[in-house]
Amino acid sequence: MSDQTKKTEGQQKQEALSYKKKNYYETADKAELKKIFDYAEGYKRFLDAAKTEREACAVSVEMAQAKGFTEYHFGDKLKAGDKKYFINRNKSVVVFRIGKENLEEDGMRLIASHIDAPRVDIKQNPLYEDSGLCYLKTHYYGGIKKYQWTAIPLSLHGTVVLKDGSSVDVKVGEEASDPVFYIDDLLPHLGGEQMSQNAGKIIDGEQLNVVVGGLPYADKEVGEKIKLTALSYLNEKYGMQEEDFLSAELSAVPAYPARDVGFDRAFIGAYGHDDRVCAYPALTAVLDNDSRHTVLAMLVDKEEIGSEGTTGMQCQVYSDLMEEICIAFGAKFRKVRAKSKCLSSDVTAAYDPNFAGVYEKMNSAMISCGTSMCKFTGARGKSGSSDASAEFVGEVRNMFAADGVVWQTAELGKVDAGGGGTVAKFLANMNIDTVDLGVPVISMHAPYELVSKADVYSNYKAFLAFMK
Ligand code: MN
Ligand code: MN
Fold first, then answer.
1. Per DSSP, what are the bridge partners of residue 277?
2. Worst-scoring range by mean pLDDT, 206-215, 260-269, 404-413?
3. How far, in Å, is the centroid of ligand 2 from the Cα of 51?
């Protein structure tokens, strides 16, 4: 590096006037690098413990309790300094702190992320045997490339409500001593016709059947012996009968743990970065940060299938909670909403040099260049996007600048190459200034996704700055 006095006038001007993304790893000093790598360790533990929205909800509650947060119910009294969490049907959770500022003047600081992830759900009447194999039939959840979910180890997670009304949790395939499950694919030797088809047809939805057993029950008098072995296992272990699948929510997810990727361990490979890579920083930012503002980390369900229903972001329950907080302080909800600010924190696509054709490099999120702000999402002509205002982006940008947050701007891909949406519009529709900010992901929605540790930590730092 040449010193400033040796730079020409043009060089100095270029430096002062031009915008360039920075690789966070390149700009971070030793102490900062240590923070980046240390933070990733906690995140990997969260990923391994939270493979479904129910598990993510439970782990978030445990982490909140460990920091002195207590459960909130509608109508509870609240005061400045209170640290609370609100559980919605065990599938979504809002962790919040009450600040010192006047709610009507200061509003709330919201971070909204989702804790559901694409996966393969078990059908309601799933169990059958065929040709020596026992299977569970499935119906996939979210946008997946179906062929990616074959021939990999899967674990089974979920909750079953039994005939007597009690419920039992299922989690098999995560411990090293556990068995795993498996969706079969065709050998290449016989795959000529399969491979000549459109990739969306290589594996049909009805072919995503999960192998769960192969031992025939030792009784000559019964038929469907392998199925009976599975049923007797489920009965012994969980008190289940076949009919109980009717009221079960079981999901097959990749059985791999989160691992460092690369000689230098710059990246994390894991199932379900989308969107736990934003949910974990949102959660830890609220847990770690004694803000003067009232801050909420909203960890919601069902984003991958449209944010509908009682646990998705479109449910009234989230605005009800915010309104209840207002009522506790005699504040008018509409006044508070008008002063509130939200970061809708979901992942975006990282520029992938292997598939350069679908990206526009100048406006794509570059891996390790920090958390990525999408002023707008949507498809075609920004359709379906809430599109944040220049004023709000300017405000957020200054918060980040003040705290030295390394961040970047991003669009999902080339104009008209595709598109996607987030929960941003549902918050913006409430008259809350909202912009998308999240971690860039490589191989999004694959069974094993890739993120940069630098970007995860940058996301956390961005949230701390936003709550300051
Ligand atoms: Mn997402
Ligand atoms: Mn997604």
1. none
2. 404-413
3. 14
Strands 371-374 and 407-409: parallel
Distance 388 CA to ligand 2 centre (A): 20
Q: What is the pLDDT of residues 44-78, one digit of tens each?
A: 999 999 999 999 999 999 999 999 999 999 999 99
Whole-model pTM: value is: 0.96
* Tokens describing residue 66: 């460990």
Q: Which amino acid is at 89?
A: R
Percent of the chain with pLDDT over 70: 99
What are the pLDDT digits (tens) for 163-187?
999 999 999 999 999 999 999 999 9
User: Comparing 219 with 419, which gets the higher pLDDT?
Assistant: 219
Asked whether residue 371 carries a pLDDT value surpassing 70, the answer given is: yes
Judged by average pLDDT, the poorest of 21-35, 298-312, 321-335, 374-388 is 374-388
Alpha-carbon distance of 77 to 300, in angstroms, equals 24
Pair of tokens at residue 419: 């598109």
Going from the Cα of 442 to the center of ligand 2, the distance in angstroms, rounded, reads 12
pLDDT at site 289: 86
User: What is the distance in A from the centroid of ligand 1 to the CA of 304?
Assistant: 7
Q: What separation in Å is there between the alpha carbon of 448 and the centre of ligand 2?
A: 13
Ligand 1 center from residue 422 Cα (angstroms): 7
Please tell me the number of the ligand nearest to residue 278's CA: 1
Ligand nearest to the CA of 144: 2
Residue 118 CA to ligand 2 center (angstroms) comes to 7
Q: What six digits make up the tokens of 404?
A: 């030295």
